[in-house]
UniProtKB/TrEMBL annotation:
Transmembrane segments: none annotated. GO terms for molecular function: zinc ion binding. This is ZPR1-related zinc finger protein. Residues 176-192 have a biased composition (Basic and acidic residues).
C-alpha cells in the first residue's frame, strides 16, 4: 500500500499491483487504485492501468456504494432554474424529459457528469445539431427539439427533468428556496 500523502483529503486507500496485460500478454501491466470517499457519490474506486511493454492504458471509476434505486423529478419553470440547478448523474443513471423529448440512457460506456442544467441543455443541443442530414419526419423532430431546447434554455419553456438511478448516486440540486419542488421516489430493488 502506498502513502496517502499528497492525495485529496477524500482518499481512503491506495494500492498498486502488477498483472498480465490484456493486449500484449506480458506481466508488465501496472494497476494503481485509489479509494475516495466523495460527498455526492459515496466511495469510489479510481483505477489507472498502464503497460510498460505495449503502452496500453485504461482508466476506470467504480462506484462502491449504492443508496438504492431512486427517481428524481424536478419541474423547471424559468431561467433561474436553468442557470442554478445542478445535475449530478452517475454513469448508471437515465436522464430524460418527456416534455422536451430527450433521453440520455446509461450504457456500457455510461458517462457520469456534474453540470449546471444549462450545461446539460447546451450539450443536448450540440448532439441534435450534429445529427444534420436526417430526412423527413426525423429532421422535423430534430429541428423542433433544437427550437424547444433553446426556448427551455432561455426560460421560455417549462419542462420536467427526471433522473432514474439504480444506485441512488445521482442528484438534482435546485436553486436555494426551490428544494420543495424536487420529488424523490425510492424505487423497488429489482428481484433477480
Amino acid at each position: 500500500m502506498e502513502s496517502l500523502e499528497g492525495l485529496s483529503s477524500y482518499a481512503e486507500g491506495v494500492y498498486e499491483v502488477t498483472d498480465k496485460c490484456p493486449v500484449c500478454g506480458n506481466r508488465t501491466l501496472t494497476i494503481r487504485g485509489v479509494v475516495y470517499n466523495t460527498p455526492y457519490f459515496g466511495r469510489l474506486l479510481l483505477e489507472v492501468m498502464n503497460c510498460s511493454t505495449c503502452g496500453f492504458r485504461y482508466m476506470d471509476i467504480t462506484y462502491l456504494d449504492s443508496k438504492g434505486p431512486v427517481k428524481l423529478t424536478y419541474r423547471v419553470t424559468d431561467r433561474v432554474d436553468v442557470e442554478r440547478t445542478w445535475v449530478i448523474r452517475s454513469a448508471e443513471a437515465k436522464v430524460y424529459s418527456p416534455d422536451l423529448g430527450f433521453t440520455l440512457a446509461p450504457g456500457s460506456a455510461g458517462e457520469a457528469m456534474i453540470t449546471p442544467l444549462e450545461g446539460l441543455i447546451y450539450r443536448l443541443i450540440q448532439y441534435a445539431e450534429a445529427m444534420r442530414g436526417l430526412e423527413g419526419e426525423a429532421e422535423a423532430r430534430r429541428l423542433a427539439f433544437i427550437r424547444e431546447a433553446n426556448e427551455a434554455l432561455n426560460g421560455f419553456r417549462e419542462f420536467t427533468l427526471i433522473i432514474e438511478d439504480p444506485t441512488g448516486n445521482s442528484i438534482i440540486k435546485p436553486p436555494p428556496g426551490r428544494e420543495g419542488r424536487l420529488k424523490e421516489d425510492r424505487l423497488e430493488v429489482p428481484q433477480g
